[in-house]
Design brief:
single chain; about 775 residues; alpha+beta; Aldehyde Oxidoreductase, domain 4; Aldehyde Oxidoreductase, domain 3; 3 domains; seven-stranded mixed sheet; about 25% helix; globular; binds dioxosulfidomolybdenum(VI) ion
Length: about 775
């Protein structure tokens, strides 16, 4: 990569959308109001597995203010993917909009549209549902028993969502035979929920030409369009999906939700706009969580620490429907073959239906689970072999050219750099060798230090060709409009895209504005997920901007009687090299009176990426109170290789946010389902314990540009999902360092700590 002076890229420019956000003027889907708008609500099942034998809506329909009630008899009986996603290519269509069968507690069985939310809510109580209970399956062991009740008639059977994923590489038995140490363990994780600030919300409106306009809080507007069109039997140009500001998604807003279909159908029936907005409680019940999992992991190591064999069985709990389970199973298992290099690998990965809420996509997509196990067992091996955990990881870390989870050779591997750089900056050796682990203020508190590592792909899903698109338009006054389908979840992605366009084209950052989220206007987009917006759409935007720049310079060359190579374009001014006095502005070259054909003022870029990986090592200090069992995460040093940073503060924000979510996963967050009847026990933020700002540690983020990926804009790679992955095992390893107790699950609660300490004392 050539050295380049950047004007805009790499600088924390003021985010274009930030004033609107902080003043509350930014329009979120919930802010849309229309004359005559109705409000939709969903009647939810109070049983986890049943056949509906009778559903009587007459009392609800007669209730003043109610305009429509829909049950399974009133909606198209079309099976759909919960996620019409390229990553779900192997997925089974297993969901109806409404079915005469209930598969999880809280599943929608009817929908009401009324003149107010209150009336709609009241009408729900007037819907009489009778059902015949079916035997339920509330855990993965029962689901896999030979005589288990089957949740679905479609799919491979045995309550499997997809056929088992099997990977075998090298000779695992020979690897174990060569090992000096063999470790075997079981790992488990709970059900963290992506608690985005903005609950799911949509507004549907039909016009006289039978066209649906649909505002929704989604990461994947074109997939929403496709699924709505398919189920409603409409051509794509009769469905327009719009998304403006979003209050987070974290992966879970990639699905096609039941309420979205119902909202569109209610609006159609009423010939009036309908809004449907989840309560916080509904985001738990009817949203998507991370997949609970169990993983059996057996690894063999040589005396010198070299990993020589890895054998794994991974089971993801899908809940009542498939959603992203195929993608999560494929990505989570493929990832589990990597991170630490190993020639001899075998695995069996499954996703299993149960009568519990739907698991879906959530930041770190299957990788959070499998790397939790890999990195904890790596620590156990280091301890057993008497090798420092940092040395152990440096010995086994994947390197440039190794095979990545995607099956491609890794290009731009910064893992070793993150580990070494972090170990120095954190003073790892100094801290770990400090024999004094107690807190001078409270001898019951023990301190400990741990490390976790991760790698995560942008656009790196096996077998999928992704494409990024962007269109750049120059306006008559020299200002520039970027059209993109990439959703802005709140991370600053649009600012990064505008920076890329401004840098490449040669205009000021302030002169670029971004139009997004209208499927009738912007180029097709695969959706904002897989940490790929900057990498994928950023590359497309760079290509479009470069083409426009070339046209501007060719035009200016004519006007100035100069060769284009001799011209420069900076901040919208075209200058002649070696002749600073001679310059013209963009408007002078391309303005409306200049006779430039309009197609010369618009350029599009498409980009089909290679597969890219980002890397990180997280260093953590914890303080464990041995009297209360409370684990306090005191300091975190995340060290991330992002190739090239486009907006340092936005990247840092992503990293800090991921750390907060990861601390929640590891210590307090778990959406608990009663394993005897499928009822949820803590839907909502009263009983579900998210970390608050007071729980945040001192975070010292280090962003490295260690290993640029030539496939990204100026080497940039993704940063979205990475930060949530390594923090969990780093905390778990630090807790072991503090109190000598090794946990194999998350969340690690104070009760677990006290039990672990007691078991250790009694040993
Ligand atoms: S879990 Mo993500 O939005 O790829």
């Amino acid at each position: 990569m050539t050295k380049q002076d950047f004007r805009i890229v790499g600088k924390s420019v003021k985010r274009a959308d930030v004033i609107e956000k902080v003043t509350g003027e930014g329009k979120y889907t919930g802010d849309y109001h229309m004359p005559g708008m109705l409000y939709g609500k969903i009647k939810r099942a109070e049983i986890a597995h049943a056949k509906i034998t009778r559903i009587d809506v007459s009392r609800a329909l007669a209730y003043p203010g109610v305009k429509a009630v829909l049950t399974h008899r009133d909606v198209p009986r079309v099976l759909h993917y919960g996620s019409p996603h390229p990553r779900s290519a192997s997925c089974t269509k297993d969901q109806y909009i409404l079915d005469d069968r209930v598969r999880f507690w809280g599943e929608g069985v009817a929908a009401v549209a009324a003149i107010s939310e209150e009336v709609a809510d009241e009408a729900l109580d007037l819907i009489d549902v009778e059902h015949e209970p079916l035997p339920g399956v509330y855990d993965i062991d029962t689901a896999q028993a030979p005589d288990a009740p089957q949740l679905h008639d479609v799919g491979p059977g045995g309550n499997l969502v997809i056929p088992p994923v099997r990977i075998e590489r090298g000779d695992v038995e020979r690897g174990f035979a060569e090992a000096d140490l063999i470790l075997e363990g079981e790992f488990e994780g709970g059900r963290p929920v992506p608690t985005y600030m903005e609950p799911n919300v949509c507004v549907a409106d039909w016009d006289g030409s039978n066209k649906l306009t649909f505002w929704t809080s989604t990461q994947t507007s074109f997939m929403v369009r496709g699924a709505l069109a398919e189920v409603l039997g409409l051509p794509l140009n009769k469905v327009r999906v719009l998304v403006d500001h979003m209050g987070g998604g974290f992966g879970a807003k990639q699905d096609l939700f039941q309420h979205e279909f119902l909202c569109a159908l209610l609006a159609k029936q009423c010939r009036r706009p309908v809004k449907m907005e989840f309560t916080r409680r509904e985001t738990f019940i009817a949203g998507r969580s991370r997949h609970p999992f169990r993983m059996w992991l057996k690894q063999g190591f040589r005396k010198d620490g070299t990993l020589v064999a890895r054998d794994m069985k991974i089971i993801f709990e899908s809940g009542a429907y498939g959603s992203h389970s195929p993608g999560v199973t494929n990505v989570g298992t493929a990832s589990a073959t990597s991170l630490y290099r190993c020639e001899n690998v075998r695995l069996d990965g499954r996703a299993v239906y149960t009568n519990t809420p739907i698991s879906g996509a959530y930041r770190g997509y299957g990788v959070v689970q499998t790397y939790y196990a890999l990195d904890i067992q790596m620590d156990e091996a280091a301890e057993r072999l008497g090798i420092d955990p940092v040395e152990m990881r440096l010995k086994n870390a994947v390197r440039e050219g190794d095979i990545a989870p995607s099956g491609h050779p890794i290009v731009g591997c910064g893992l070793e750099a993150c580990i070494s750089h972090g170990a120095d900056a954190f003073d790892w050796a100094g801290k770990r060798n400090n024999p004094n682990r107690s807190d001078p203020r409270n001898p019951a508190i023990r301190k400990g230090w741990g490390i976790g590592c991760e790698m995560h792909g942008s656009s790196a899903y096996p077998g999928i060709k992704e494409q990024g698109n962007a269109t750049v338009k120059m306006n008559e006054d020299g200002s520039v409009t970027l059209l993109t389908g990439a959703a802005g979840l709140g991370t600053g992605a649009h600012t990064a895209l505008a920076q890329i366009v401004a840098e490449e084209l040669g205009v000021t950052f302030e002169s670029v504005s971004v139009v997004h989220g209208d499927t009738d206007v912007v180029p097709w987009d695969i959706g904002a997920f897989a940490s790929h917006t900057t990498y994928l759409v950023g590359s497309a935007a760079k290509i479009a901007a470069a083409e426009l720049r070339e046209r501007v310079l060719a035009r200016a060359a004519e006007l100035l009687q100069e060769s284009a190579e001799n011209l420069g374009l900076v901040d919208g001014i075209i200058t002649v090299r070696g002749n600073p006095g001679q310059s013209i502005t963009l408007v002078e070259a391309m303005g409306p009176t200049r006779g430039v054909p309009s197609e010369h003022l618009i350029a599009s870029g498409s980009y089909t990426p290679t597969k890219s990986y980002s890397f990180a090592a997280h260093f953590v200090e914890v303080a464990v109170d041995t009297e209360t069992g409370i684990i306090e995460c005191r300091k975190v040093m995340p060290v991330h290789d992002v190739g090239k940073v486009i907006h340092p503060i936005a990247a840092q924000g992503q990293i800090e946010g991921g750390i907060q979510q990861g601390i929640g996963h590891t210590l307090t967050e778990d959406y608990v389902i009663d394993r005897t009847n499928g009822r949820s026990l803590n839907a909502g933020l009263v009983d579900y314990k998210m970390p608050l700002s007071m729980d945040m540690p001192d975070i010292e983020t280090i962003i490295l540009e260690a290993a640029p990926d030539p496939g990204g804009p100026w080497g940039a790679k993704g940063v979205g999902e990475d930060p949530i992955i390594a923090i969990g095992p780093a905390i778990c390893n630090a807790v072991h360092d503090a109190i000598g107790v090794r946990f194999h699950h998350y969340p690690i609660t104070p009760e677990d700590v006290l039990k672990g300490l007691k078991a250790r004392r009694e040993q």
